UniProtKB/TrEMBL annotation:
It comes from Pedobacter planticolens. Residues 24-348 form the Glycoside hydrolase family 29 N-terminal domain. One of its GO terms (molecular function) is alpha-L-fucosidase activity. The lineage of its organism: Bacteria, Pseudomonadati, Bacteroidota, Sphingobacteriia, Sphingobacteriales. This is alpha-L-fucosidase. Keywords: Glycosidase, Hydrolase, Signal. Alpha-L-fucosidase is responsible for hydrolyzing the alpha-1,6-linked fucose joined to the reducing-end N-acetylglucosamine of the carbohydrate moieties of glycoproteins. Belongs to the glycosyl hydrolase 29 family. The keyword Metal-binding does not apply.
């Protein structure tokens, strides 16, 4: 695929398909993830589960990111498409697929050890290969490979034995193996395709097999809908639902007919979302196994991601990509087991929670249960004084989750200040609990962002800006490798001197700070002048280039120090940014960072 093509897809088509533009919203305007209007009564287990395991496993796992001596990067399960492999050649991969290293109990036990509550595995991805015994098409693991067994039978059973909900991913529209399936234009003529025939002859009967032969399923995870009207999708859903009325369908069944909302691949919304929803991430860069993809998230990154997603009210379903032998990569095993150790003692702050009522703070995030706020302290304030702004209720007690030891706290006006004990600076997430009576005001984007010299960095994110003129707050989607999507909320479209973004901060101690603008700036915006003011003091700067000359390059961000300033007393300040000239976007602003000068 040419680079130009990439850009158009990355920034435009995909951003409308897989993400939404955001504007500064208040809580009652926040998007409710309940996509189908009435909530499925079987959602409770899903809402409580918080942590799922996604597994991408298919013939692409055997191909492992290399075809005819050429290595591919990004989404390994897309290699048939990326390398435009003919169906006839792809069939030959099946004849060598023999994952004798597969052990269902090992996988399910890993999930259990990791603290995972549901597992969704690819029964059939876009390549069209059924990883289970299918009578509908012999392009399946029992009939087309030397392995000759159905791994899904054992896996369903191994999960059920451990109380883990089990479900299947099924690519309902894209099927690159079938003449009438979606999106293979290198073997088949798009104009001659009859999607309804494909649905009738393959997708629907295979889904019926899955919903009939593997016991109760927690989820059927659909992906990339296409080729059906709303009415056709409704008929499709009804026809499948009767087989297992309790099974949840992911929102990617299409046409707003799912039971819960999935965000884009690797996307966490920037504010809390009500209702049932899920963020999906993969452990490294690819979903399907690629032997040269070694960018595995550490357990610290997984735990912090899980806390962040839970603080917005959602589930994290984290993907692993077993190889062609049936083994889960060793770093996935190791880092998931470490994650499980943390969850074993801190699980109460994740499972069964809803989004945190305390806006994100420089120390971390929060999650809620009735009468309780769990404070996920990812960064300890150096002096141990933890601020909870806007918490004007009767605080009964504060304690550390693991040892339940009560901590001293003070209520000053609407603020609560907690004296934290000394704890290991390397701790990835230390959880404290506030028990209270009364009603905490709901999460609000209007709460001033805390800025404190007790932290090396204070991030003030784009989503908290007030904008005027053309300036907009938008979620941008892009990828570095093929299909490894990234999502960042930025202030865009600040192109005239009257276009402004303003942030309100609450500085807790006097002191000197560096002020950094974190932004992405393509060639066309290089060397524009901007103004950043803090109350009445103005600082001027000129933009630095972050992107390649070619417009097609994905977004890269720089942290550009644009000012040094002194806050002589604590209190509320306003930071405003605008271009000095008219006509061109100044940059895409991701955040303003205040860094205490040491
Ligand atoms: O299974 C994983 C992906 O393979 C699947 N969803 C996750 C869970 C997925 N299928 N399609 N997409 C995600 C979005 C597809 C985006 C596309 Fe492209 C843009 C297809 C063609 C252009 C990305 C870039 C993939 C190929 C080029």
């Amino acid at each position: 695929m040419k680079l130009n093509h990439w850009f158009i897809l990355n920034l435009f088509i995909i951003s409308t398909l897989f993400s939404q533009s955001v504007t500064a919203q208040t809580m009652d305007q926040m998007w409710d993830s309940n996509v189908s209007g009435k909530e499925n009564p079987n959602l409770q287990w899903f809402k409580d589960a918080k942590f799922g395991m996604f597994i991408h496993w298919g013939l692409y796992s055997k191909i492992a990111g290399e075809w005819n001596g050429k290595r591919y990067y990004g989404s390994g399960e897309w290699i048939m498409n990326q390398a435009k492999i003919k169906v006839a050649d792809y069939n030959k991969v099946a004849s060598t697929f023999n994952p004798t290293g597969f052990n269902a109990d090992e996988w399910a036990q890993l999930a259990a050890d990791a603290g995972i509550k549901y597992m969704v595995i690819t029964a059939k991805h876009h390549e069209g290969f059924a990883m289970y015994q299918s009578k509908v098409s012999n392009f399946n693991i029992v009939d087309a490979t030397p392995y000759k067994k159905d791994p899904m039978k054992a896996l369903a059973e191994a999960n059920r034995k451990r109380g883990i909900q089990f479900g299947f991913y099924y690519s309902q529209f894209q099927d690159w193996h079938e003449p009438n399936g979606g999106r293979n234009s290198w073997d088949f003529d798009e104009a001659k395709k009859d999607y309804q025939t494909y649905y009738r002859e393959k997708a629907i009967p295979q889904l019926k097999e899955l919903l009939t032969n593997y016991g109760p399923l927690g989820i059927v995870w659909f992906d990339t809908p296409g080729g059906m009207t709303k009415e056709q999708t409704q008929t499709f859903v009804n026809e499948l639902r009767v087989l297992q009325p309790k099974t949840l369908f992911s929102s990617r069944v299409g046409q707003g007919l799912g039971d819960y909302k999935d965000f884009g691949d690797s996307e966490v919304p920037s504010t809390p979302i009500k209702g049932a929803w899920e963020s999906i991430y993969t452990h490294n860069d690819s979903w399907g196994y690629i032997k040269h993809d070694m960018n595995f998230k550490s357990s610290k990154e997984i735990i912090q991601l899980l806390a962040n997603v839970a603080s917005k009210g959602g589930n994290l379903m984290l993907n692993v990509g077993p190889d062609g032998d049936g083994k889960i990569p060793e770093y996935s095993v190791k880092f998931l087991q470490q994650t499980g150790k943390w969850l074993k003692v801190n699980g109460e702050s994740i499972y069964g929670t809803t989004y945190g009522l305390i806006a994100a703070q420089p120390w971390g995030v929060s999650t809620s249960k009735p009468g309780k706020q769990y404070l996920h302290v990812l960064t300890r304030p150096k002096n141990g004084k933890l601020l909870i702004p806007d918490f004007n209720v009767n605080v009964k007690k504060v304690y550390e989750l693991t040892d339940k030891k009560e901590l001293p706290f003070k209520k000053i006006g609407k603020e609560v200040w907690i004296d934290l004990p000394l704890f290991n600076q390397d701790a990835v997430n230390t959880v404290f609990v506030i028990e209270y009576a009364g009603t905490v005001p709901d999460y609000s984007l209007q709460t001033p962002i805390t800025v404190s010299s007790q932290f090396d960095e204070n991030n003030v994110d784009a989503v908290f800006a007030q904008t005027t003129g053309n300036a907009k707050i938008q979620s941008l989607t892009y990828s570095h490798y093929y299909g490894d999507w990234k999502h960042t909320t930025c202030i865009t479209n600040m192109k005239d001197s009257t276009d402004r973004a303003t942030f309100t901060i609450n500085v807790t101690e006097p002191g000197d700070y560096h002020v950094k603008a974190e932004y992405s700036c393509p060639q066309e915006s290089v060397k524009l002048e901007g103004s950043l003011s803090i109350n009445n003091q103005e600082f001027l700067f000129r933009t630095l280039r972050t992107s390649e000359f070619d417009k097609s390059s994905p977004l890269l961000f720089i942290k550009h120090t644009v000012a040094t300033t002194t806050f002589s007393k604590p209190g509320i300040y306003h930071i405003a940014i605008h271009p000095l000239q008219n006509g061109k976007e100044l940059f895409k602003l991701k955040s303003v960072i205040l860094e205490p000068v040491k």
